[in-house]
Known about the structure:
By secondary structure, the chain is of the alpha+beta class. Helix content is 31%, strand content 23%. The relative contact order is 0.10. The model is unreliable at 1-10 (pLDDT under 50).
Amino acid sequence: MPVESNAPSVPSDKDAILSAPREEGANVLLTANRYDDPDRGRHGAIIEETSAFRSDIELFYDLHALAWNADEGHTLDARDDAVESDVSYASSKVPEITLENRFDEEGSTGTLTQRVVASVDTCGLLIETDAEFETVAERTFYTVADLGIHGHDHEDPNAVQEAYVTERDGAELVVATDGDRWLAFAQDRDGDREFDGRRIGHTGVAAGPDRSAWADIYEGNDGFVDDAERGEGNLDAGVGLYVGETDAASWLTGVGFGYGEDAAVEHALRLLDRGYESERESFATAWKEWHETVSDGPTDDPAVNGLYERSLTAMKCAQDGCCGVIAGAFKPSDMTYKFIWPRDQVIITQALIAAGAEREARLALRWFDENQITGDVVDDRGIDRHGTWWQNYYVTGEAHWRALQLDQVGGPIYAHWLVWRETGDDDLLDEHYNMSRRAAEFLLSYDNGYGFPKKHQDPWEEIWGHSTEGTAAAIAGLRAMSELADARGDEGFADECREQATVWAENFEKYCFKSTPYGDALVTADSPETPSDPSADARPDAAAFMAVWPWNVVDADSDSVAATLAAAADEAWVAGDSPCLGRYPGDRYTPTGTVEDGGWPLCEAYADTARWLGGSDPDAVADHVFEDAREWTTTAGLLPERVDGSGRVRWNSNLQWSQATYLLLVENHVRDEAFGLAPDGGTD
Length: 684
């Protein structure tokens, strides 16, 4: 049965993601989005932004299912005309996605249900669609997809692509390519694999010979397709399936991907030949076998275990073939989360190893090693970046944003130390030792001459200054390096790292603990060069609680942490009707670009861990795990980046950092100790 969620009916961005856990299917990443947008009249759910071979390039965007009723003369689209919808997973361990759209229209009151899986051994997707209506009518169904196969520059919406209709073994297919990657669509209803109308159109063109398939089928609303079988440019594609007089119909849509037309076509047709139940069984078996290698939900609460397992499943889905984990399968209008942030991957690695996903944690470490800057490279601030990492990366390893963040230098050292400590594998120590040593050498060189790191960008990527969280991560990285170096017999370097970390830690509160309008608190950054309101050195910051856990630089029961937690009660910082802390008071990183009431689940996770460890609220972690977080999920049960003032999903519904912190808080609760605390700087 589909997983039930306590989430209310709210707008969100990407309620579910899907991939296979191994082989060819691991190259495919699909998202499903459920809308509740009364301003635009959208209440349906559709498949969106599907990629293959690299998860930061979409091969198609929206995949629309539409129903034409000839008797009533209307065309209904799942996204725009459904009165309500659901997106659900088959289970917490099997991310088969079911999308259910319900219509309430004269002659077409009924339900359109789609189930989708990625093939395990074939690079492709298979979608089963079932339509059931209350009345018999003459019907045609349509599939319309925006083709996103935009060449090597995936941020250029005008890059040239080509699409055409072809025939193979009695089946018609739509094929699209950018000259490198290929995809092919085909459909099957009771052995009939021909299209009843087919159009390759130009997206955004409303009329004329180049009009889009969407304009021809949905906006034209006449039940006919003006055939166009080839196009170049920015394209969409639509195909028809005439089913005659009926109140129910079922069909399959196969989508194949490949590095060549023959491969893509073969993959699409192979999936149709096998059928949905066969592909679903293989998909479910592969996921269940993977889950046998990692931890099950470790509590006696089925709902908590389900969210734990879904979070772990989501992180596995988001691990690209390059070994890195993308931050989220989420793409706002002018940017994307489909990059790899070393910072995010550090915490994801912490969660993976906590859950026993050793292979995935090792792959993440390999990504750090393979993408570290090892040449003589100077950034635009004149900083020699040898031994560091860029701010974030395309999945190919090409740098995207390039600012210096110290949590993305100290953090990978910590991740190396943690996975080595948890596995006890000295081969792992040796394999990545040079990587960690290079990063530590950079940190040692980055002292400001007064016993503190030089300025750097804060974790929220907004402020250049002496960041509280970034400095704590640098201290943790040097302490972790000292233990790695001791284990390798590199005692002199171990002492050097330990001594520098000690000096920085001694000066930590002098730089980072300030008087603010919300009370004394650990702030975003000292001496910020970037203007903000409130100023970054006069506002408390949730990232500062990472100095407690995992960086272990400030004691949870210290006066500075107690004061910062007291400030966290201010209504300017916490969601009004939900115990969810924001990044900092006055945060404008919201869908509207203005200050909104709400919070970030991952920020609340760090604050609750500080409350729990410091004893100010011994139930904070349990409350987070068993009560609060369950109210912050999408209809499919994934955690977002941000919730609104009532705790409803507001932004980026599959942020892997959020999944990771929830999983880690479950582990903290079950173990009755904070998992992954960095070394405390002692010599024992």
